[in-house]
């Protein structure tokens, strides 16, 4: 009995979807409820499972194909007796097109880009032609304005050709490399490399990828002193790191002294030009947009952090033992902000054209510093989270941000932003609003200061608060009231429990 495998009914407002990953191929035996394929929409990833035990006899849509709701994408022969020859296997990944004695050839394509992202940049190739790789090993990082996408190997094998170099601009589903399944191919010989392409000069910045130029600039290394091992003698990030580990000494060169880079005298004024990353360009544009399109003001206050510090000290050990995570300050900040947002709905609102949109949920963006720049992933439904849930959520977002693993869903939305410049030593700042949000709260360095308490001077751990807000929607009364509420909640954490 043949059973049709169909795309599920798609969510409302979603017109089509893409085949993300086939977990089976033609001829595979499958169990009932086994995941067959992941289908990706603009909003969610849908899993299609096997309705019965049987054998996959046909796959009609390959990875990367666009499909519609309830479209037939495969066929299953019910029972265990069905057979299907490997020669009938449908291509997977953006795959395939021809076979040879060296193995099946597979096209490596740029993934479907997130909505509103027109193109992307090849950031880093992690493998070179001829290098053996394992299935699901990361081949290349592709950088968009918002996230870094990883493209992994569809099977064991090797790259046979790289078609888009680091720094190149690419579009969705563009072929960027060719891959050979099976045994690793042989890397091109040195003589072949020389014939194919003249050796790149390390002094020529155009021969360096953006990631290498950034690393050289950050470390203050002269490209002329680094020996390149890449194609045509190009310098790779690994070459720079190896050079730094070896003490930064310049490699011996067989070239005449006349062609070497001149020695720069001590005290010589130099400069380096490094291109902006796509994320940095986006940050710059959004910050200018916020300054130019909002009536932004900032109001300040200060907090005595001693009550929270005493509370952490008293319960830190038992909290960590029970929940498996340390109790930090951010969970208190998020809790206090959530309660203040409930009392001042204007701060939790946004402007859409001539309308004010009041949000009845509490999604808070947390500013996270990453190697690529500042990002603001969203911690959702904060009103439903306990202190441990908040700490765990923030830690997860911070780790993903550091490793470049944040998804588009985690970056989108958010009604209010918290940024903590205090971790870098900032005593006071005026944070910039994160559009289309209407306000942002800046936390700062906790510093001991003499304060007047009941007519006496006491040394207390104090912290400045700064709240920037859009005066088009939030008046001074609401902004000051919001900040005072946050202050009261943090100076007397019992209020968080009693909701007073």
Automatic annotation (TrEMBL):
<feature type="compositionally biased region" description="Polar residues">
    <location>
        <begin position="91"/>
        <end position="103"/>
    </location>
</feature>
<feature type="region of interest" description="Disordered">
    <location>
        <begin position="181"/>
        <end position="207"/>
    </location>
</feature>
<dbReference type="InterPro" id="IPR023213">
    <property type="entry name" value="CAT-like_dom_sf"/>
</dbReference>
<feature type="domain" description="Lipoyl-binding">
    <location>
        <begin position="105"/>
        <end position="180"/>
    </location>
</feature>
<dbReference type="InterPro" id="IPR003016">
    <property type="entry name" value="2-oxoA_DH_lipoyl-BS"/>
</dbReference>
<dbReference type="InterPro" id="IPR004167">
    <property type="entry name" value="PSBD"/>
</dbReference>
<keyword id="KW-0808">Transferase</keyword>
<keyword id="KW-0450">Lipoyl</keyword>
<feature type="domain" description="Lipoyl-binding">
    <location>
        <begin position="2"/>
        <end position="77"/>
    </location>
</feature>
<dbReference type="Pfam" id="PF02817">
    <property type="entry name" value="E3_binding"/>
</dbReference>
<feature type="compositionally biased region" description="Acidic residues">
    <location>
        <begin position="197"/>
        <end position="206"/>
    </location>
</feature>
<dbReference type="InterPro" id="IPR001078">
    <property type="entry name" value="2-oxoacid_DH_actylTfrase"/>
</dbReference>
<keyword id="KW-0012">Acyltransferase</keyword>
<feature type="region of interest" description="Disordered">
    <location>
        <begin position="79"/>
        <end position="107"/>
    </location>
</feature>
<dbReference type="InterPro" id="IPR050537">
    <property type="entry name" value="2-oxoacid_dehydrogenase"/>
</dbReference>
<feature type="compositionally biased region" description="Low complexity">
    <location>
        <begin position="79"/>
        <end position="90"/>
    </location>
</feature>
<comment type="similarity">
    <text>Belongs to the 2-oxoacid dehydrogenase family.</text>
</comment>
<dbReference type="Pfam" id="PF00198">
    <property type="entry name" value="2-oxoacid_dh"/>
</dbReference>
<feature type="domain" description="Peripheral subunit-binding (PSBD)">
    <location>
        <begin position="207"/>
        <end position="244"/>
    </location>
</feature>
<comment type="pathway">
    <text>Amino-acid degradation; L-lysine degradation via saccharopine pathway; glutaryl-CoA from L-lysine: step 6/6.</text>
</comment>
<feature type="compositionally biased region" description="Low complexity">
    <location>
        <begin position="246"/>
        <end position="258"/>
    </location>
</feature>
<protein>
    <recommendedName>
        <fullName>Dihydrolipoyllysine-residue succinyltransferase component of 2-oxoglutarate dehydrogenase complex</fullName>
        <ecNumber>2.3.1.61</ecNumber>
    </recommendedName>
</protein>
<comment type="function">
    <text>E2 component of the 2-oxoglutarate dehydrogenase (OGDH) complex which catalyzes the second step in the conversion of 2-oxoglutarate to succinyl-CoA and CO(2).</text>
</comment>
<dbReference type="Pfam" id="PF00364">
    <property type="entry name" value="Biotin_lipoyl"/>
</dbReference>
<feature type="region of interest" description="Disordered">
    <location>
        <begin position="242"/>
        <end position="270"/>
    </location>
</feature>
<dbReference type="InterPro" id="IPR006255">
    <property type="entry name" value="SucB"/>
</dbReference>
<keyword id="KW-0816">Tricarboxylic acid cycle</keyword>
<dbReference type="InterPro" id="IPR036625">
    <property type="entry name" value="E3-bd_dom_sf"/>
</dbReference>
<dbReference type="InterPro" id="IPR000089">
    <property type="entry name" value="Biotin_lipoyl"/>
</dbReference>
<dbReference type="InterPro" id="IPR011053">
    <property type="entry name" value="Single_hybrid_motif"/>
</dbReference>
């Amino acid at each position: 009995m043949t059973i049709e495998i169909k795309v599920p009914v798609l969510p409302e407002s979603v017109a089509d979807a893409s085949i993300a990953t086939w977990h089976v191929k033609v001829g595979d035996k499958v169990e009932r409820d086994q995941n067959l394929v992941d289908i990706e929409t603009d909003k969610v990833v849908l899993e299609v499972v096997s309705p019965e035990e049987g054998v996959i006899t046909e796959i009609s849509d390959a990875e990367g194909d666009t499909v519609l709701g309830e479209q037939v994408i495969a066929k299953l022969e019910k029972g265990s007796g069905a057979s299907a020859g490997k020669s009938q296997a449908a291509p997977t990944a953006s795959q395939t097109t021809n076979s040879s004695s060296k193995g099946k050839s597979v096209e490596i394509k740029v993934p479907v880009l997130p909505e509103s992202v027109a193109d992307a940049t090849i950031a880093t190739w992690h493998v070179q032609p001829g290098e053996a790789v394992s299935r699901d090993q990361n081949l290349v990082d592709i950088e968009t304005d918002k996230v870094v996408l990883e493209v992994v190997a569809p099977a064991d094998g090797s790259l046979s050709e790289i078609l888009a170099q680091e720094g190149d601009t690419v579009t969705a589903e563009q072929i960027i490399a060719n891959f050979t399944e099976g045994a690793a191919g042989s890397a091109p010989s040195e003589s072949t490399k020389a014939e194919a392409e003249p050796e790149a000069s390390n002094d020529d910045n155009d021969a360096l990828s953006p990631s290498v130029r950034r690393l050289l600039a950050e470390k203050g290394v002269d490209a002329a002193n680094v020996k390149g091992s890449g194609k045509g003698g190009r310098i790779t990030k690994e070459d720079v790191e190896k050079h730094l580990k070896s003490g930064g000494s310049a490699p011996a060169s067989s070239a005449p002294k006349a062609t070497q880079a001149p020695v720069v005298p001590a005290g010589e004024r130099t400069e380096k030009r490094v291109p902006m990353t796509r994320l940095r360009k986006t940050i710059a544009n959004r910050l200018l947009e916020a300054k130019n399109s909002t009536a932004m003001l900032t109001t300040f206050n200060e907090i005595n952090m001693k009550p929270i510090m005493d509370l952490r000290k008293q319960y830190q050990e038992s909290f960590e033992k029970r929940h498996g995570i340390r109790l930090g300050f951010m969970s208190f900040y998020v809790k206090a902000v959530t309660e203040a947002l409930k009392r001042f709905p204007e701060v939790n609102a946004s402007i859409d054209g001539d309308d004010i949109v009041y949000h009845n949920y509490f999604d808070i963006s947390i500013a996270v510093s990453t190697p690529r720049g500042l990002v603001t992933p969203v911690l959702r439904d904060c009103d439903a989270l306990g202190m441990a849930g908040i700490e765990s959520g923030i830690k997860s977002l911070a780790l993903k941000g550091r490793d470049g693993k944040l998804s588009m869903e985690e970056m989108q939305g958010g009604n209010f932003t918290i940024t903590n410049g205090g971790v870098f030593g900032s005593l006071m700042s005026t944070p910039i609003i994160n559009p289309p949000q209407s306000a942002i709260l800046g936390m700062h360095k906790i510093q001991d200061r003499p304060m007047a308490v009941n007519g006496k001077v006491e040394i207390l751990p104090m912290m400045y608060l700064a709240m920037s807000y859009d005066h088009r929607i939030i008046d001074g009364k609401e902004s000051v009231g919001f900040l005072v509420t946050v202050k009261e909640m943090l100076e007397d954490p019992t209020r968080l429990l009693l909701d007073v």
